[in-house]
């Protein structure tokens, strides 16, 4: 079962992503553990407890203190195997900067079910061959 972190300072954006992920679960007969965070600092605190706990991070870029990019780079310092997806309303010119964190994907708001489905299918496909 995948452990998925959703980090966005706006509750409505976290709720939307949560709903899209639940829709994927229902359509595909799978289940995920979802964890919501409202800041980069909060997610880093949880990450520091177990650096291999999360399989997938959905990170907003513009948050109050740490940006999504700063958060992702901090995660990458200790875990290069997890998947990071930036979910942003940012200008597409920031795409180059995001590449420093080796993201699986960069999604632009508003989110679409099809994009979430592709990401979850890709991450699940990678988990199938792993040992428990």
Q: Note poorly predicted spans.
A: 128-132
CATH superfamily: Response regulator
Q: What global shape is seen? A: globular
Largest sheet: 5 strands, parallel
Structural class: alpha/beta
Q: How far apart are the termini?
A: 10 Å
Number of helices: 5
Q: Do you know the CATH architecture?
A: 3-Layer(aba) Sandwich
Q: How would you write the strand order of the largest sheet? A: 2-1-3-4-5
Q: Radius of gyration over alpha carbons?
A: 14 Å
Q: Under the CATH scheme, which class?
A: Alpha Beta
Mean pLDDT score, rounded?
Answer: 92
Q: Helices and strands, in N-to-C order?
A: EHEHEHEHEH
Helical residues, percent: 40-55%
| Beta strand count | 5
Oligomerization status of the protein chains: single chain
Strand residues, percent: 15-25%
Can you walk through the features of this model?
With 132 residues, the protein is α/β, with parallel strands linked by helices. It has a single domain, classed as Response regulator (Rossmann fold, 3-Layer(aba) Sandwich), CATH 3.40.50.2300. The chain has 5 helices and 5 strands, in the order βαβαβαβαβα. A 5-stranded parallel beta sheet has the order 2-1-3-4-5, with helices on both faces. Helix 1 packs across helix 5 (113-128) and helix 2 packs parallel to helix 3. It starts with a strand and ends with a helix.
Question: Layout of SSEs?
Answer:
Layout lengths: L2 E5 L3 H18 L4 E5 L2 H10 L6 E5 L7 H11 L4 E6 L6 H4 L6 E4 L4 H16 L4
Parallel strand pairs: 1-2, 1-3, 3-4, 4-5
Helix pairs in contact: 1-5, 2-3
């Amino acid at each position: 079962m995948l452990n998925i972190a959703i980090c966005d300072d706006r509750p409505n954006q976290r709720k939307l992503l949560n709903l899209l992920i639940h829709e994927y679960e229902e359509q595909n007969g799978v289940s995920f553990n979802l964890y919501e965070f409202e800041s980069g600092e909060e997610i880093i605190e949880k990450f520091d407890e177990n650096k291999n706990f999360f399989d997938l991070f959905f990170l907003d870029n513009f948050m109050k203190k740490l940006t999504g990019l700063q958060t992702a780079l901090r995660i990458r310092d200790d875990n290069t195997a997890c998947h990071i997806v930036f979910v942003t309303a940012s200008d597409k010119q920031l795409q180059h900067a995001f590449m420093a964190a080796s993201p699986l994907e960069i999604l632009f708001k508003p989110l679409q079910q099809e994009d979430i489905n592709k990401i979850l299918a890709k991450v699940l496909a990678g988990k199938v061959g792993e040992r428990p």
